């Protein structure tokens, strides 16, 4: 099995630990969109305690890639996803974090 498939299998396992059921095809598409960041230990995680990191998620992914404009809704969604992982969970995997945001905003169609 390849590195990408290994990462997807790992992410699916992590989702299961969190009690989440994921759409495998959409998770794969979101993960592919991360490019090399998926394989970098630091870049593959979202640090929700870092304001600059959350600003990048908001501006680059949610506003830039997904085209969202309602900043209040974006902030609420980021907080909700953070809570799904657990605030003290240091392993907020970017692929899953972004997947949950895509689902929350109903933007899965952008990955077809």
Give the CA-based shape.
globular
* Low-confidence blocks of residues: none
- What is the percent of helical residues? 55-70%
What is the CA-atom radius of gyration, in angstroms?
Answer: 13 Å
- Our estimate of the beta-strand percent is under 5%
Question: Helix count?
Answer: 5
Helices and strands, in N-to-C order? HHHHH
The class by helix and strand makeup works out as: mainly alpha
Report the mean per-residue pLDDT as an integer. Answer: 95
Number of strands: 0
Largest sheet: none
What is the topological layout?
Layout: H1 3-17, H2 24-33, H3 51-65, H4 71-85, H5 94-104
Helix pairs in contact: 2-5, 4-5
Report what the structure shows.
With 112 residues, the protein is an all-alpha fold. The protein is 59% helix and 0% strand. The protein has helices spanning 3-17, 24-33, 51-65, 71-85, 94-104. The protein is globular, with a radius of gyration of 13 Å. The protein starts with a helix and ends in an 8-residue tail after the last helix. 26% of the residues are buried. The model has no long low-confidence stretch (mean pLDDT 95).
């Amino acid at each position: 099995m390849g590195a990408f498939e290994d990462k997807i299998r790992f992410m699916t396992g992590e989702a299961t630990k969190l009690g989440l059921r994921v759409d495998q095809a959409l998770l794969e598409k979101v993960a592919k969109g991360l490019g090399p960041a998926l394989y970098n230990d630091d870049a593959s995680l979202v640090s929700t305690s870092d304001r600059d990191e959350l600003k990048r998620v908001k501006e680059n992914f949610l506003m830039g890639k997904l085209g969202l404009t309602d900043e209040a809704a974006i902030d609420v969604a980021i907080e909700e996803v953070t809570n799904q992982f657990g605030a003290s969970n240091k392993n907020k995997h970017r692929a899953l974090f972004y997947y949950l945001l895509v689902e929350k905003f109903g933007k899965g169609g952008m990955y077809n």
